[in-house]
Write a structure and sequence with these properties.
The complex is a heterodimer of chains A (356) and B (245). Chain A is of the alpha/beta class and 356 residues long. Chain A has 2 domains: 74 residues, no CATH class; 213 residues, Alpha-Beta Plaits (2-Layer Sandwich), CATH 3.30.70. Chain A is globular. Chain B has 245 residues and is mostly helical. Chain B contains 9 helices and 4 strands, in the order H-H-H-E-E-H-H-E-E-H-H-H-H. In chain B, the strands form 2 sheets. Chain B has a two-stranded antiparallel ribbon with strand order 1-2. In chain B, strands 3-4 form a two-stranded antiparallel sheet. The radius of gyration of chain B is 44 Å and the shape is rod-shaped. Classes of the chains: A alpha/beta (356), B mainly alpha (245). Chains A and B meet through strand 2, helix 5, strand 10 and helix 10 of A and helix 2, helix 7 and helix 9 of B.
Amino acid sequence: MGTDKKKWFSLNLTKKKESSSCGCGSNSGGCGSHQKVEKPKKNDGFDQVLNSSMDRRNAFKQLTASLLVGAGAVTTACSVTGDEKTKEKAQIDWEEQFKGNYKLMSDDEKTATVDRLVRRHQLKTGDQLTISSETAEENVLFGYAFNISKCQGYMDCVSACVEENNQDRNSQMEYIRIHEMKDGKGFNFNEADDNFYHEVPADGHFYMGTQCFHCDNPPCVEVCPVQATWKEPDGIVVVDYDWCVGCRYCMAACPYDGRRFNWSKPEVPAEEINKNQHYLGNRLRKKGVMEKCTFCIQRSRKGKNPACVEACPTGARIFGNLLDPDSTIRWVLENKKVFRLKEDLGTEPKFWYFMD
Amino acid sequence: MRIGMIHRVLDSIKAFRLDCKEAKRRSEVMKVRKALHKQYRKRKHSLVCLLLIATVTASCKHHEEEYHSVVDKIEAKSKDYKETSISSEIFIQDLHTIEISEGGHTFLIPERKGQIKSYACTECHTKPLAQLKGKDLKKAHWNLTLRHADEHTMNCITCHNGNDMDNLKSLTGAKIDFNKSYNLCKQCHTKQFEDWKGGAHGKRLESWANPRASMTCVNCHNPHKPSFEKRWPAKFNTQKVKERK
């Protein structure tokens, strides 16, 4: 395994960026091709706050900015001169700012916040979204099965997922990972390649997909200090993006690398936005919050298959209601030799693997 | 010296008396203590009981449900399963499907004949094959190569019937409808057929809900070259490459 295949994200706190080398051998002046280009150093993690040079003026600016947001909202909402649209937007911003945790909202409050979000987007861009606040159906517990013998590594699921769930195009965030593993090495994630680009299936390899497993005993939910993530009655582990404080405890707690963080403001080209959204699902996110696979809650709660299941050309992905004794997922669990990853942790994932 | 001895004896007597007093006092203290202890033990008993109840109830904090594992939960909760209000019908109503019933599984598969461009075959196959093979006639099916098993195992007439082109035929010569071509495949691919009926092989159409609609063999596998071909992945994450440097 080469160093270029490092799969974890390091903060890179101590390493200094090497100065660019030049053909002339020296690092400054002389050959004429040297230009003093000071690349803006990208800070990472808490460096963004702690290591940023800030003078007194800037510090005061940033402090007052947050105060002004609140004050501004009040004044525009109360002003007599502002036009109707700005007033409405301010009113919405105000109410959104002080709304409660989605988990604790009544159905009326849920529809109210969803309506506000739709209206805000309309005021901002002129586009009409549909955001659902559909609740879990009784007698439904979602489960997933993945056929390792069938997956060919085409990655159609990954691209369908990105499009369906409005994931950030800049950082190329992906919920699904397809691991290319060598035959005879077992499930060796350290040596597997999850970012391959060559003709697939490659000889002597097999493919295995991972994503959020929607554990029945999810450790990510346990560690959340603000209860911004929880397990819905139909088994889907969801995040309230407006309640999340971005501490990333859940990311650290997840033993399956199922959670993703928005380091920058997620951006989706207007024409590519999937307008069929759910509050807990693929609605547009903001910077600094967690997100993850939701079994395409906006689709599955209506009865549709998740986007990855629909996109898979090999039929390796099976999704269904675990409580329905006649469902296909139940047939797989009862008739195939199924297993889950890290079963000994007691996380009880609702995502099973099997082979032909 | 004598006086000294007397003093010592007196002292020891004093000490003995004191000891007796002390012992008496002590025994009284012990009595009180024992009584207290008895009371305490009684209380402790009830206290332990209370604690036990408390721990038993509190230990279930993490699992609101009484199930040991998710599999137990599924088993228990699906015992009195009632069909949900979610139906796949709105999603599959536009598909042309036929209902089939195989080995206790009833589900829908896409209708096939309407999808074959030049069905019915007899529209062209008006004459016996031998006559059509001549040089004077326009060539047809020129792009067909059979890459399915080897030539000792299969050729055209393993599945097609030269005398009845509108239908397929089984190994024993029985008629098989194009819409139910899985009957042809299952002759050799028995394991896949079992998995397909149950839902482990093949792909669900549109919805996870009932009624079930699944693809049939020929929707994914070209019967003339059934294995999947190599191709480039749909995606490559350039950002991931940068991050991992």
